[in-house]
Amino acid sequence: MFGRLMPTEGKFFDLFNQHAELCVKGAREMVALMSNFDDLENRVHAIEGVEKQADKITYATVDLLHKTFITPLDRDDIHKLITRMDDILDLLEDAAQTVSLYDLHAVTPEAKRLAELVLACAEKVKEAVGMLHNMDNSRQIVAVCEEIDRLESDADHVMRAAMSKLFRDEPDVRHLIKMKAIYEILETVTDRCEDVANIIEGIIVENA
């Protein structure tokens, strides 16, 4: 009787989907920022705004977790998933603010490529999260997670090549330091996307 009076699944999957959509939106803004510095300030503000929206969804998810008696997934998995998704946008905000702080007016093709890989990862995160409500999708979800792993490996290769080129060819030490920081942040975003994929794969193992 008591259990029937308590909230059950709530809107966890809706919240996951909303957050994943913001991850994609933030990543698109990052690609646009890396491609055109004419509107840098507005791009940075846009990414900061997306990150704040995502924070509200994260808080709402955690709050709902505390209020829900029966959850559709393991409580720890819900918390880990929304937290790692939030890390994606936190890092995108860090990257945008770092570009602004360092007063960069152009970036290397490798930085642009890393931003594109971030977007590709974010789109795959959204795709995987969008299927998570139905464990009949488990095979497709695992395939998407494997694609995220591949994209993260691509980002590793791009960063290693970019670092090698930077230390070999860049004569300006200040610019070298700035670009190194941007490379590392963007590559770490793909790491966090891979973390999300790993969490989702764990959820599939537990529930499918």
Automatic annotation (TrEMBL):
Matching InterPro entries, A to Z? Answer: PhoU-like_sf (IPR038078), Put_Phosphate_transp_reg (IPR018445), UPF0111_domain (IPR052912)
Family per record:
Belongs to the UPF0111 family.
User: Which PANTHER family does this entry report, sorted A to Z?
Assistant: UPF0111 PROTEIN YKAA
Q: Quote the protein name from its UniProt record.
A: DUF47 domain-containing protein
Record organism: Rugamonas fusca
